Amino acid sequence: MSDSANRGVEAVDLAALAHGGPGRGVPWALQSEDLSANLVVFAAGEGVAAHVNAEVDVLFLGVAGDGVVEVHGRSHHLGPGRLLVVPKGARRATRAVGDRFAYLTCHRRRAGLLPTKRPRPGAPPGADDPAPAP
């Protein structure tokens, strides 16, 4: 294939990224004109606090470890290879239940919204600030 045929194509080893690097944060993200995808990693007990996304449906794909995605108060297990689609307007939260939980989110690109991260119990102030993107 020519270089022009590969333009915009990105191949990523999500499993390697999920197991390497810091224990939390976003080790990989993609923002194209149409698509937003993020690999999110949390340590045990960490996650994203409950919030409502009124703009887009979101696909969650478990990559490593075990976690829970709560949708309208109902818990859904998310582990490697398990997929969950959350419709826009749904109240949702995520939480790692294992030592390390990694999942991929993917949705149509939208205006930037950052949900509030759930702090770890007993963590010092600022310890749960998001890790910088690579």
Task: Please give the structural blueprint.
Layout: H1 3-6, H2 14-19, E1 25-31, E2 35-43, E3 47-52, E4 58-64, E5 67-71, E6 74-78, E7 83-86, E8 91-96, E9 100-108, E10 117-118
Antiparallel strand pairs: 1-2, 2-9, 3-8, 3-10, 4-7, 4-9, 5-6, 5-8
Would you report the number of β strands?
Answer: 10
Oligomer: single chain
Query: How many separate helices?
Result: 2
Which class do the helix and strand fractions yield? mainly beta
- Largest β sheet strand count, sense and barrel closure: 5 strands, antiparallel
Report, as a whole number of angstroms, the end-to-end distance. Answer: 29 Å
Total number of distinct structural domains: 1
Radius of gyration: 15 Å
Structural account:
The protein is mainly β. The protein has a five-stranded antiparallel beta sheet with strand order 1-2-9-4-7. The chain has a five-stranded antiparallel beta sheet with strand order 6-5-8-3-10, with no helix packed on it. The protein has one domain: Jelly Rolls. Helices cover 7% and strands 45% of the residues. It has helices spanning 3-6, 14-19, and strands at residues 25-31, 35-43, 47-52, 58-64, 67-71, 74-78, 83-86, 91-96, 100-108, 117-118. Residues 125-134 have a biased composition (Low complexity). InterPro entries: RmlC-like_jellyroll, RmlC_Cupin_sf. Residues 112-134 are annotated as: Disordered.
